[in-house]
Specification:
Helix content: 10-25%
Order of helices and strands: HEEHH
Number of strands: 2
Strand content: 5-15%
Distance between the termini: 9 Å
Largest sheet: 2 strands, antiparallel
Length: 107
């Protein structure tokens, strides 16, 4: 985002955010059905990066284990060819997650 398109509304400590803060994705949210949550994980440290990471239980072992611990839904809208499914909406459906989708998402 360009600086003139964003506005800081509030400041939070990492410890406060890691207590199960929910947010909604900017695309195909379906009225919060797929809300995301910020939680701490055993593999997240303050020594590496921010100390907080996005958790996606349908995308990797560590995220899956964290999702189980917090009772999160497993959501993986990616097919076996690495392309987004219709669950993410028409804008991204069929795009390769690694090579095609980022440009569309950032627009």
């Amino acid at each position: 985002l360009k600086a003139n398109h964003s506005e800081k509304l509030k400041t939070f400590s990492g410890a406060d955010l890691a207590q199960g803060t929910f947010y909604t994705r900017p695309f195909n949210n379906e009225q919060g059905k797929y809300a995301q949550v910020l939680v701490g994980g055993d593999y997240v440290t303050a020594d590496s990066g921010t100390g907080l990471v996005h958790t996606a239980p349908g995308h990797g072992y560590d995220d899956y284990q964290t999702g189980l611990a917090y009772g999160l839904n497993v959501f993986s809208p990616v097919d076996d060819r690495g392309r987004y499914t219709a669950q993410v909406g028409d804008e991204l459906k069929g795009l390769n997650v690694l090579t095609q989708a980022n440009e569309q998402i950032f627009q």
